[in-house]
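User: Let's play a game. I give you a shape written as tokens, and you guess the letters that built it. Ready? Here's round one.
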């Protein structure tokens, strides 16, 4: 079944966000709600529409998508016959209201329409009471996690009568069209993610109270060290809403057999009673006061300054999660044992929920990774800690294990196995050409090259630039059809090596150390741009600074929709030096603009780079000029490499024509004068500092083509030379050094 049209029932916060997600995915969407005003029956749904299409903070990737969204009300729009392929209900969590809405929907829906409820707390079976036997075959829970645009997890909860075809259609829709990760859950309280995620948070809070452990100490032990969000347990509860955790806990306590796993926590209940629900009320377990984050003291009922945790075990942890699991297993101190019990209890409860909550233990891992932002799920962590020794210790400490664990003699995952349903890149590789510190070059699909950026934090290092040149040489000289460049991790690349810049300034060897690196960077990016065979870059997350410039020079790009691209060098007192300014000039000056608006386009580029603007999604990156109309955008980030390989294959088979090196007419001194006037006004108005003025003026000099008359012919290599000169000049300045140092120390820009 192909789903092209959707109706969202309920225009509240969640309904609006789901509607926006569907529109972003290319569907025609109608959002409906109750009519509370006879004179304005669409009042609620119109408000949702206006929030989704708000010009300043739109929920859509592109406001040009807005015509695909309409709004109405249940009374007027659920009449006659309706042609929606799927209805997603997100009305108030009251059974009578849901029943009323579904009675109206099923009376007008076409025979093969799918019915989905986004409930998180009401059993799916209860909501399904209004459906007949045939309608139940097309009804299921479809639980999106908040915010649905960002969170990957969607839980699909079928009834016993829901057909496999309906579940398959819903899963293919969520994964293929919306780019989500699907877990098929059973109709049990909390389904999978909330059930297990809330239980471990409750378990941690209960034991912390019993042992007299402070809130901040507990969070230090239950955050990054065990692969969970850096907020820790209490901080995450503040983010989600303490009232939600308490409500889920109390609900689970009413379920037979669950009361021993869900305990009342005094501090959480005390805060809920006082109305301190977390971030939504600006105070919960933590409270921000001026520039400090205070923590709640349950004994004094006051917010106090946090003290740094003094547990020796914390010094033993690193970014290596496997090593951390070994430290926890072998720990014998109070803090270490608390962490072991945290892992043990989570492993045990997760095992009990197979097949109770999910038929596949991998779905439990998927639910916690995709829905709670854990780095690894419970069974992945169990493997990391050592399957057999953990199994024996849990049995010794807690008694009988679930039968499926008792009968298991090997770990849960094979080496390199992932929870993703999309084939991993490693599965595509047929042979490896090299595996170096900063890059890996492999062969896939018999004649395609796959170049992986794998330097520390995916920085665009000097060694990677050299590897890129060598890879392009190999592509052009051997019998390969095309190449795809990609990087693993949440972010594609956040730029260049600032430590090297700082060191070069301190040694007073900017020209000697940085100059040649810029030359290599220019050569590598130029080789990629003018390659004789097609190259496609698959990009996701942040592509900043040098990462942005690499994307700019790629002949083709496949970008995940959640890609944030920008040249942010002004934040550290520099300007782009990898050819980014030259490339943006090339894109504007080599285009036949109507009404001669090249100067206006160049002014927008100057503003975006001068203000270090970063696109909020890939479609906005197109509007900024960082992506082109020939570049592709997909919602499923896991499919970006596969899509890039397909695009590269297509281009290689369609008479690929390499981009020729061009020359074009510069805007010259006219544009520089215009920019100077604009920047003077900003400086006089105290919108920018003197150093901001100097940096941005140097950017304008490069974009204008230097100190030349308008209509002077220039080319990209000449503009890159201007970039190099001005970059090195800025790097030698003390104010730039201060900005770089501040960024390295704090992670925040300094405006001096």
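Assistant: Ready! My guess for every position:
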């Amino acid at each position: 079944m192909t789903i092209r049209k959707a109706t969202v029932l309920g225009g509240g916060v969640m309904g609006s966000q789901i509607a926006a997600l569907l529109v972003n995915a290319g569907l025609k969407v109608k959002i409906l709600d109750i009519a509370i005003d006879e004179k304005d029956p669409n009042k609620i749904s119109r408000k949702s529409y206006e929030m989704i299409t708000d010009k300043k903070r739109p929920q859509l990737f592109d406001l040009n998508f807005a015509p695909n969204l309409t709004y109405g009300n249940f009374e007027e729009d659920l009449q006659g016959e309706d042609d929606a392929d799927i209805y997603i209900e997100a009305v108030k969590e009251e059974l009578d209201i849901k029943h009323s809405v579904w009675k109206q929907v099923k009376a007008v829906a076409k025979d093969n329409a799918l019915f989905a409820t986004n409930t998180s707390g009401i059993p799916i079976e209860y909501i399904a009471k209004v459906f007949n036997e045939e309608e139940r075959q097309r009804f299921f829970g479809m639980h999106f996690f908040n915010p649905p645009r960002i969170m990957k997890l969607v839980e699909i909860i079928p009834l016993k009568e829901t057909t496999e075809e309906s579940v398959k259609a819903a899963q293919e829709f969520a994964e293929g069209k919306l780019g989500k990760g699907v877990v098929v859950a059973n109709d049990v309280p909390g389904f999978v993610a909330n059930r297990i995620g809330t239980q471990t948070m409750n378990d941690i809070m209960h034991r912390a109270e019993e042992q007299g452990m402070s809130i901040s100490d507990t969070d230090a032990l239950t955050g990054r060290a065990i692969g969970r969000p850096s907020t820790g347990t209490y901080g995450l509860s503040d983010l989600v809403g303490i009232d939600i955790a308490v409500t889920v806990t109390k609900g689970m306590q009413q379920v037979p057999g669950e009361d021993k796993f869900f305990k009342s926590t005094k501090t959480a209940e005390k805060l809920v009673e006082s109305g301190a629900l977390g971030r939504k009320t600006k105070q919960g377990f933590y409270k921000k006061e001026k520039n400090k984050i205070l923590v709640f003291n349950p004994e004094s009922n006051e917010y106090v300054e946090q003290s740094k945790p003094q547990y020796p075990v914390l010094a033993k942890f690193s970014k290596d999660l496997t090593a951390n699991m070994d430290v926890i297993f072998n720990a014998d101190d109070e803090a270490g044992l608390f962490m072991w019990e945290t892992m043990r209890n989570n492993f045990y409860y997760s095992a009990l929920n197979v097949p109770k909550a999910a038929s596949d233990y991998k779905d439990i891992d998927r639910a916690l990774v995709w829905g709670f932002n854990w780095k690894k799920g419970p069974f992945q962590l169990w493997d990391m800690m050592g399957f057999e020794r953990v199994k024996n210790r849990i049995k010794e400490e807690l008694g009988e294990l679930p039968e499926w664990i008792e009968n298991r003699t090997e770990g849960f995952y094979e080496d390199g196995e992932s929870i993703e349903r999309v084939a991993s890149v490693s599965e595509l590789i047929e042979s490896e050409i090299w595996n170096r510190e900063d890059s890996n070059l492999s062969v896939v699909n018999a004649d395609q090259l796959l170049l992986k950026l794998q330097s520390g934090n995916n920085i665009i290092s000097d060694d990677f630039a050299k590897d890129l040149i060598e890879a392009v040489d190999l592509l052009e000289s051997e019998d390969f059809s095309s190449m795809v460049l990609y990087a693993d991790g949440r972010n594609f690349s956040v730029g260049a090596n600032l430590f090297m810049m700082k060191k070069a300034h301190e040694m007073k060897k900017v020209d000697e150390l940085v100059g040649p690196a810029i030359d290599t960077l220019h050569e590598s990016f130029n080789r990629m741009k003018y390659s004789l065979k097609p190259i496609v870059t698959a990009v996701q997350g942040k592509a900043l600074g040098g990462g942005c410039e690499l994307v700019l020079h790629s002949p083709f790009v496949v970008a995940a929709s959640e890609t944030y691209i920008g040249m942010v060098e002004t934040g550290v007192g520099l300007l782009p030096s990898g050819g980014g300014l030259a490339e943006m000039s090339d894109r504007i000056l080599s285009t036949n603009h109507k009404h001669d608006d090249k100067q206006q386009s160049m002014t927008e580029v100057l503003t975006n780079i001068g203000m270090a603007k970063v696109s909020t999604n890939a479609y906005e990156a197109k509007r900024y000029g960082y992506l082109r109309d020939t570049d592709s955008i997909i919602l499923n980030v896991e499919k970006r490499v596969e899509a890039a390989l397909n695009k590269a294959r297509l281009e290689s088979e369609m008479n690929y024509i390499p981009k020729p090196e061009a020359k074009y007419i510069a805007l010259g001194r006219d544009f520089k004068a215009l920019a100077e006037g604009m920047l003077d006004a900003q400086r006089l108005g105290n919108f920018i500092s003197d150093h901001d003025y100097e940096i941005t003026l140097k950017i304008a000099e490069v974009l204008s083509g230097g100190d030349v008359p308008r209509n002077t012919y220039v080319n990209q290599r000449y503009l890159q030379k201007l970039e190099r000169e001005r970059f090195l000049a800025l790097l030698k300045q003390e104010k730039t050094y201060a900005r770089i140092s501040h960024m390295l120390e704090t992670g925040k820009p300094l405006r001096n």
